[in-house]
Design goal:
three-stranded mixed sheet
């Protein structure tokens, strides 16, 4: 995060001088007025230059990355955060030792981190950004596990000829179950309950 103090005949000129040196626009910085300056007699005699301190602000993605590093540090886990941005959103991929502590039992810890990071990245934003927090390909492995579970429990629902209820899951995991069975000709799915205990039900047709 860069910071610079600049001067000018006016506050506006001082600010423009700082922005020029940082090669940033006003939306990317915080401006603190140090001295408003003084025009002086006839704009010359006794004049005093204006001074401002201009600080570069972190982008929402950088704030999300720093949040994850700080949380991991509080957990006594050292991580490196690799960021991938595309039109679908941003993925924070966590790399480091003791990464199992970050993932947690059944992904509870990493799911909580994803939710909190989502709040950090989307704070005061007009456009919603999808946030994924991953570690050691956990998301891909979890997706495969849930798809296999969906098919296994669909067969169970058909065999017993009654609805089968899954354990509570976050919405993005429930979506994996729904998607895995959406083309199944003999079962349908729906979600029931209230967050954070909302769950998927597999129903024989």
């Amino acid at each position: 995060m860069r910071e610079i103090t600049a001067s000018g005949r006016t506050i506006e000129e001082a600010k423009e001088n700082a922005l020029s040196q940082l090669d940033l626009d006003e939306s990317q910085v915080r401006v603190d007025i140090i001295d408003e300056g003084k025009k002086g007699l006839l704009g010359v005699f006794g004049s005093k230059r204006a001074y401002v301190k201009v600080t570069e602000m972190k982008s929402a993605v950088e704030e999300g990355k720093q949040f994850l590093v700080d949380i991991a540090k509080d957990m006594n886990v050292s991580i490196d955060v690799q960021v991938k941005e595309d039109q679908n959103g941003v993925v924070f991929d966590l790399v480091g030792e003791k990464i199992g502590l970050i993932i947690g039992k059944r992904g509870q810890t990493i799911n909580a981190l994803q939710y909190l990071t989502h709040l950090v990245v989307n704070k005061n934003k007009d456009e919603y950004v999808t946030v994924v927090v991953d570690a050691e390909d956990y998301r891909a492995r979890r997706k495969e596990t849930l798809e296999n579970l969906a098919n296994k429990l669909a067969n169970k629902a058909l065999k017993l000829n009654k609805e089968v209820r899954l354990e509570p899951m976050p919405s993005f995991e429930r979506k994996i179950i729904h998607t895995a069975l959406q083309d199944h000709s003999k079962v349908s799915t729906y979600s029931d309950g209230r967050d954070p205990n909302r769950y998927v039900v597999i129903k024989p047709e």
